[in-house]
Write a structure and sequence with these properties.
Length: 226
């Protein structure tokens, strides 16, 4: 049985608002973030889900509970937290200014102090971008493409096992992780260049097939278009 997966990006956080790098570090949802999520939750309130899951980071957990509480047609028990669906890890850059971080990454990639991440990725490709991020990180802790690819594959495998008897599930994850899934699993991606960054509270819909194959069929859909 194939499983329909609604991937929801968490709501806006304080670090999003302050333009700070937010990977495995965490910050609380803002008032705007909660208000935006309420619109998404209302749009999904009458969509039946067999289960709901989230990343194990608090901003995702808070988001999934908003989805759960607003849904009037689903009986969801305790939310299972999946660390495999955490945000991309940025190592020593966690909590730093985003634009300054991308400049360091661009310099490590040998293309000058560019702070537009989409331009960087489209110039050098996602593989070299992840390698440059790890290289630029003074402690070299940031995830490179191989580490992130392995985690994405593991995440899909874990979800496949959990949802064997579930037709439709909701899972709250993170912007860069969802975007990287789209680069890998969305037919409109070429697997190398960047795709638009998903909005806070947006929904990306995927199909997890019986054989474990995963494909993204709708990407970055906002509440008003659900």
């Amino acid at each position: 049985m194939a499983t329909e997966v609604y991937l929801v990006r968490h709501g806006e956080t304080m670090f999003n608002q302050l333009n700070k790098v937010q990977g495995w570090c965490d910050s609380p949802l803002t008032v705007k973030g909660i208000d935006d999520l309420k619109r998404t939750a209302d749009a999904l309130a009458q969509v039946h889900f067999d289960n709901m899951y989230s990343s194990d980071l608090k901003r995702a957990i808070d988001t999934v509970h908003l989805m759960k509480n607003a849904n009037i047609v689903s009986k969801i028990g305790k939310i299972k937290k999946l660390p495999e669906f955490r945000e991309v890890f940025f190592g020593s850059f966690e909590g730093d200014d985003i634009n300054e971080t991308w400049k360091q990454v661009a310099l490590a990639a040998g293309i000058g102090p560019v702070d537009d991440v989409q331009k960087i990725i489209n110039q050098i490709g996602i593989y070299k971008f992840r390698e440059a991020t790890k290289k630029a990180d003074p402690r070299h802790l940031a995830e490179n493409k191989q580490e992130l690819d392995e985690r994405m594959v593991r995440a899909i495998d874990v979800l496949h096992d959990l949802t064997e008897n579930e037709k439709r599930v909701l899972l709250v994850s993170h912007g860069d992780f969802i975007k990287t899934l789209a680069i890998k699993y969305w037919e409109k991606s070429d697997g190398l260049h960047d795709v638009p960054f998903p909005d806070n509270g947006s929904v990306t819909r995927g199909i997890l097939h019986d054989d474990g194959k995963f494909e993204i069929v709708d990407y970055n859909v906002n509440a008003e278009n659900l």
